[in-house]
């Protein structure tokens, strides 16, 4: 019986002639389809030989199984998902979403050639930084600007260019570590700058920096504590006072903001969030750097702003070519910066700002409407709207929470439900709180809400 069934296994070329597989070879790499067929046939032989398979599937069943396998194998590893966590700048989920309009511009630039380093008016070679430098200077008041591939690169380039071989004073309370084990003392050592620690973990005064300058320090470096907050018996030297001190001693003041707003934080409902409004920092410092994909709401980039002479020195540093920004990031960044030229449009068009400023009443109203729609799609589950606390995320505003609204899903194991949503199509990432799965409205778009209805309908059908 086993030998009879083995002899019935079709050859690869026979299966590839099946209508669905022929069509699949037209839209997917033929080599991938052949490999899927080979693996499937091997599984059939193994099943017959081991006794776990008594009878061969029909040709139609084979065809369907192979198509399913090919679709799974050819699916992109990096792909879109639905962020229902309520964390606006979720590092694991790609931080700032760009939105449809900006994404379309990036797609247009990516689809063909572009004037990346070509001056159309003069018909000659140009600088890739020209696409965003004027915009950045106009928005922040900086004399010059430079963009590299992320803020870690910006910090490194800044220190390597302006503090290499020099003693740089940094508060002990600002010797931070951010994601990926990026530590300020280590990055300073790699850049060639000599670290001079001043003050204590919880208290650093202007007089501590002054003492360091008196003893030979030549650079002042301030680092924003992006991913933690010290409270209690603390003191911090303000940027304004450090600026005055730096001018007195003729030392450059460098400021790693980590993340910064290009619009007043109050316009998105955030108050008392510290000195992270970029134009204010630019006025007081010689060079400022921050991430393009955090509170600025753009693509991953490290933005450097400051005095022209210092920025020009960084542009000519050989490291700049190692760290330079690519055309797709430039396209996204330029599109985002153009929206900032009109504050009202920025609040409406830039997804990060729109999500940050969303009010709890509006979010709860949306949650109630979505809960009703989902209840129709998946009657076996229970959906209800409830208040929640969201986060800005991205290590940008530690200890800041955003009152929001969410759909709570009950009627099944939260962990099991989260896993099924996570592995669905599209994947949905929620959060479990108090033994309930929450789908936060803050980070959901209208398209996401429609997709959620389809996802839950599919879950209901598979129960």
Short description:
The chain is α/β, with parallel strands linked by helices.
Strands, helices and their partners?
Blueprint (H helix, E strand, L loop, with lengths): L1 H7 L3 H5 L2 H9 L2 H21 L8 H16 L7 E2 L3 E3 L10 H12 L6 E2 L4 E2 L4 H11 L3 E5 L2 H12 L4 E5 L5 E2 L3 E2 H8 L2 E5 L7 H9 L4 E5 L15 H11 L3 E7 L18 H7 L2 E5 L10 E5 L1 H8 L3 H4 L4 H14 L2 H7 L1 H7 L2 H18 L4 E12 L8 E9 L3 H9 L5 E2 L1 E3 L2 E5 L5 H17 L1
Parallel strand pairs: 1-16, 2-14, 6-9, 6-10, 10-11, 11-12
Antiparallel strand pairs: 3-4, 5-13, 7-8, 12-13, 14-15, 15-18, 17-18
Mean pLDDT: 91
Number of strands: 18
Query: Uncertain regions: pLDDT < 50 for 5+ in a row?
Result: none
Outline type? globular
The largest β sheet comes out as: 7 strands, mixed
The rounded Rg comes to: 28 Å
Main β-sheet, spatial strand arrangement: 5-13-12-11-10-6-9
* Tally of individual helices: 20
Amino- and carboxy-terminal Cα gap: 36 Å
Task: Decide which structural class fits the backbone.
Answer: alpha/beta
Oligomer kind: single chain
User: Beta fraction of the residues?
Assistant: 15-25%
Characterise the protein shown here.
Strand 17 (431-433) and strand 18 form a beta hairpin. The chain is of the alpha/beta class and 463 residues long. The strands form 5 sheets. The chain has a 7-stranded mixed beta sheet, sandwiched between helices. It contains 20 helices and 18 strands. The mean pLDDT is 91.
Question: Main attributes?
Answer:
alpha/beta, single chain, 17% strand, 46% helix, five-stranded mixed β-sheet, seven-stranded mixed β-sheet, 20 helices, 463 residues
